[in-house]
Amino acid sequence: MKRIPLFTVAAVLAFSLSACGGGNQQTQPPAEKSATETPSTTAPSGSYDAATAEALFKNTCAGCHGQSLEGAVGPNLQKIGGQLSKEQILEVLNNGKGSMPPGLVKGTDAENIAAWLADKK
């Protein structure tokens, strides 16, 4: 029987485990738009990128709040903008609330999701 060197097994194992990831992946910001393209969605809560916000929500928040914001473990967010302002939503994202841990999304990602959710009325 042919023996496989230990370093080969270790390298394959390390590569395999690194592919599992931690689940807290940040998406890359959208590329700069040229002057001929339309600007990001502008709404009452400010300027934000709705497609990026929705993708971030689905990757980070939908496990508890549902793919369509319908609620599951976490509360329904379909009309959260009628209850909380962008700043209040951002505060919840940053500090957590109830069983929601703080800092699941941070920085501009948190601001983008907060603005997007604030328009859900």
Automatic annotation (TrEMBL):
Record GO cellular component, one term: membrane
Signal sequence residues: 1-21
Ranges for domain Cytochrome c: 48-121
Pfam (any one): Cytochrome_CBB3
Entry-linked InterPro entries: Cyt_c-like_dom (IPR009056), Cyt_c-like_dom_sf (IPR036909), Cyt_c_BACSU-c550-type (IPR012218), Cytochro_C551 (IPR054782), Cytochrome_c550/c551-like (IPR051811)
PTM field: Binds 1 heme c group covalently per subunit.
Key words of the record: Electron transport, Heme, Iron, Metal-binding, Signal, Transport
Matches recorded under PROSITE patterns: CYTC, PROKAR_LIPOPROTEIN
Binding site for heme c: 61, 64-65, 100
Gene3D superfamilies listed in its UniProt record: Cytochrome c-like domain (1.10.760.10)
GO terms of molecular function: electron transfer activity; heme binding; iron ion binding
Disordered as annotated region, ranges: 21-47
UniProt biased composition (Low complexity): 36-47
Transmembrane segments: none
Name of the protein described by the UniProt record: Cytochrome c
Organism annotation: Brevibacillus agri
Source species taxonomy: Bacteria, Bacillati, Bacillota, Bacilli, Bacillales
